[in-house]
Each structure stands twice: as structure tokens, then as C-alpha cells.
């Protein structure tokens, strides 16, 4: 699979970066504050690697811990899916460009491919033109 189907366009996946959602976390049990920090880190990484492309983040599902020992220490413990994904995408022109581009960030339990079904369904609901922009050769 080297393409994604949005609500209004089929776009190509030009590059796909994947890494552990908690890369660099030495210790601790994730909660909302830690998760927000790592979501922001993914955004910063996308901007660093693809500085000229607009980006969209698919809100990740937060997974509650079931281990009572963890919940005893931190009742509000929740984690991101294991893998952060950043895709550099290109598609048909929106208005007057040669093509359009955008970056999409999402999280899933296993490395791609395939992309998790919940993410695929979320992408199908998105309009490419709502965040992508025209680009020129």
C-alpha cells in the first residue's frame, strides 16, 4: 500500500516515519500530561523533517491500563498506541499547483503496513483539501 484514500482524494505516501511513541522516556507511567508532551514531540518532529508541508494530527486513542498495580500508583494512567507514524503525502493539485502536499500524524499498535483499521476509517472521513496545500515543481 503506497496510497491513502481521503474523503475527497487518493494521495501517495512519499515517506513514512515510524518510531516508538515513548522514544526517550526513561521511566514513569504515561498519563495525559506525558501523552500531550509526546504528541507535541511528534508534531515538532514532523515540522523539523517536513518544514514546508502543512500537517494534520489524527487524535490518538488513549489506552487505559488494566494492571491494578499500575492503577494503584497512578489511577489516571493511560498510554498512546505503541507506534507514532508521520507520513509525507502528495496528491492532485487543489487549485493552481503542480501537485498538493501535506503531512499526516497518527498512532497505532503495530508498525505499518497495514495501517490500523481505526486510522484508515478516520482518514476516509478527512478532506484532503482541508489541510493540504498546493505545491510547485
Folded structure, characterized:
It is built from 3 helices and 8 strands, in the order ββαββαβββαβ. Strands 1, 2, 3, 6, 7 and 8 form a 6-stranded mixed sheet that branches. 24% of the residues lie in helices and 31% in strands. It is of the alpha+beta class and 137 residues long. The longest helix has 18 residues, at 32-49. It is elongated. It has one domain. The model has no long low-confidence stretch (mean pLDDT 93). It has helices at 32-49, 68-73, 117-125; strands spanning 3-5, 10-20, 55-57, 63-64, 78-79, 83-91, 99-108, 133-135.
Structural key phrases:
two-stranded antiparallel ribbon; about 140 residues; single chain; 6-stranded mixed sheet; alpha+beta; elongated
At a glance:
Helix content is 24%, strand content 31%. It is an alpha+beta fold. The protein has one domain (3-135).
Write down the overall geometry. Answer: elongated
C-alpha-based Rg, rounded: 16 Å
User: Count the strands?
Assistant: 8
Question: Please, what is the average pLDDT?
Answer: 93
The rounded distance between the terminal residues' Cα atoms is 25 Å
Please count the helical segments: 3
- Beta percentage is 25-35%
Stretches where pLDDT is under 50 for at least 5 consecutive residues are: none
Helix-strand category: alpha+beta
Percent helix, as a range, is: 10-25%
Largest sheet: 6 strands, mixed
Q: How would you spell out the order of helices and strands? A: EEHEEHEEEHE
How many discrete structural domains?
1
Amino acid at each position: 500500500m503506497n496510497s491513502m484514500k481521503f474523503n475527497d482524494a487518493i494521495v501517495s505516501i512519499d515517506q513514512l516515519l515510524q518510531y516508538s511513541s515513548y522514544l526517550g522516556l526513561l521511566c514513569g507511567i504515561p498519563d495525559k500530561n506525558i501523552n500531550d508532551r509526546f504528541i507535541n514531540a511528534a508534531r515538532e518532529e514532523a515540522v523539523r523533517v517536513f518544514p514546508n508541508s502543512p500537517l494534520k494530527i489524527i487524535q490518538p486513542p488513549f489506552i487505559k491500563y488494566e494492571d491494578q498495580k499500575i492503577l494503584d500508583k497512578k489511577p489516571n494512567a493511560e498510554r498512546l498506541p505503541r507506534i507514532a507514524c508521520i507520513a509525507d503525502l502528495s496528491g492532485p493539485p487543489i487549485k493552481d499547483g503542480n501537485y498538493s502536499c501535506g503531512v499526516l500524524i497518527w498512532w497505532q499498535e503495530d508498525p505499518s503496513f497495514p495501517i490500523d483499521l481505526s486510522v484508515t476509517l478516520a482518514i476516509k472521513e478527512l478532506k484532503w483539501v482541508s489541510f493540504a496545500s498546493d505545491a510547485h515543481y
